[in-house]
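hey m, so remember when u said the tokens were messed up on ur end? i reran from scratch. heres the input so u can diff it against urs
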Amino acid sequence: MFAEIEKILEMNVRPKLADHYGNIELVSAIDGIVEVKLLGQCKGCLSAKFTVEDLVEAALKEAIPEIKKVILVNQVNEELLEQARNILSESSRAK
């Protein structure tokens, strides 16, 4: 199913996202649940949830009826996450 989803993303979704300087990454596809990350200008866009629901989920469900849901995976920069851990660790030691 992964390859079939990638094909649909390549043909029907990526060209539309590219118009907005964005892209999409397929993270997983298990038991009809598809997880994706938006990239480029689409990452963090206020309309990201609607893009996934209206564009991605609709295109995938139309082509592959077994798909139940498409979930947008939030991604956090690992460097930023490490900085937050350090700040919290230092804060708890200071108490």
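this time it looks ok to me. The helical segments are 2-18, 48-63, 78-94. if urs says something different then somethings off w ur setup not the seq
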